[in-house]
Write a structure and sequence with these properties.
Radius of gyration of chain A: 17 Å
Shape of chain A: globular
Number of helices of chain A: 7
Strand content of chain A: 5-15%
Largest interface: A-B, 33 and 33 residues
Number of strands of chain A: 4
Distance between the termini of chain A: 17 Å
CATH topology of the largest domain in chain A: Glutathione S-transferase Yfyf (Class Pi), Chain A, domain 2
CATH architecture of the largest domain in chain A: Up-down Bundle
Oligomer: homodimer
Number of domains of chain A: 2
CATH class of the largest domain in chain A: Mainly Alpha
Chain lengths: ~210, ~210
């Protein structure tokens, strides 16, 4: 059985928990507290030299890191990852967009606000507003007239972007002007076997 | 023929130019000056709402953005992207590592230094040193006893990480303590049909 090393408030971890659950794949959840340095111990660095969760132990001693790489690995051959070269490429495009243009602004702001760093990070928080809203604007341009990010189907691109977008308000981003995104959030929530970011839910047969 | 919208000093653009050249795929290069806002014009934003190069026009009006998504698209079915699920996953892991843990520190430092922003960005440059060296440390841990990042073969993972690592000194990162990385740089340079970051080289049959 897969072992998932995770930190529950993490959207990056949530992506993997959500996909595993929607695929009906059972897994063992091993919770680490990143605030207490539990991902920077020698034991954990031996598993992932980059010292981050989520980390999926595929088989004893075989570890895969990077949330979006884990999504790709798990979704190969499933309906969550389109096979056609162009659709596949569009999924990849959104996954890299998420890690480069979205997560560092929206997720990081949420992390600081959740963990009482608003005062010490005041200026940095302000600087993340413009690029964060720019990322939401790119999503809105797609979602204002499409049901999902790639084609008309729910894929791992939606899972990856949903993770931090649906809690963007926790990072002081106001989604009220993004009607396409808001409707898409409802659409993602209504997918079979959806779980909440706070759920530890172990995958069940769907 | 593919059209590549690019900015020559960009390592992200270089990745795509290098792979296209090594695959022997001819392409038309369209150079834009990001310093003059040429990727933020209405015309360019209609092609890529995220306003970034590289951008590959696959066929008239069909655009693919995100350098690493382009690498994946172009390398499908070639020797540059392993097929086995685990090796494929490892390539993806390095590609996301590059965009999240490496590029924002090493490439951004280089960009600022290249474009005379060292004074205005002094503190930010300092803050990028530790995470940049951490990323190099993760690479070194792999490369100190392996010839390439995934398996014993040159893949798009090497192309993606090479792009900004081999010019890390231009971002004030000193590679002299990273002997594994330095040997790997030589190994990458010696691959067939290698081009330099400053080359406009149009792909030729290999």
């Amino acid at each position: 059985m897969y072992k998932l090393y995770d930190f529950l408030p993490s959207g990056n971890g949530y992506k993997v928990r959500l996909l595993l659950t929607q695929l009906g794949i059972p897994f063992e959840l091993i919770l680490l507290d990143i605030l207490k340095g539990e991902t920077r111990t020698p034991e954990f660095l031996a598993k992932n030299p980059n010292g981050r969760i989520p980390l999926l132990e595929l088989s004893p001693g075989e570890f895969l890191s990077e949330s979006n790489a884990i999504l790709i690995y798990l979704s190969q051959g499933t309906e969550f990852l389109p096979l056609s070269p162009l659709e596949h490429a569009r999924v990849m495009q959104w996954l890299f967009f998420e890690q480069y243009s979205h997560e560092p602004f929206i997720a990081t702001s949420r992390f600081w606000l959740q963990h009482d760093m608003a005062e010490t990070k005041k200026q940095a928080l302000e600087e993340k507003q413009a690029p964060g809203y720019a990322a939401l604007g790119v999503m809105e341009q797609r979602l204002k007239d499409h049901p999902f990010l790639v084609n008309d189907r729910y894929t791992i691109a939606d899972i990856a972007l949903y993770a931090y977008t649906h809690v963007a308000h926790e990072g002081n981003f106001d989604l009220s002007g993004f009607s396409g995104i808001l409707q898409w959030i409802d659409r993602v929530k209504s997918q079979p076997n959806h779980i909440l970011i706070t759920d530890e839910a172990i995958g069940q047969d769907s």
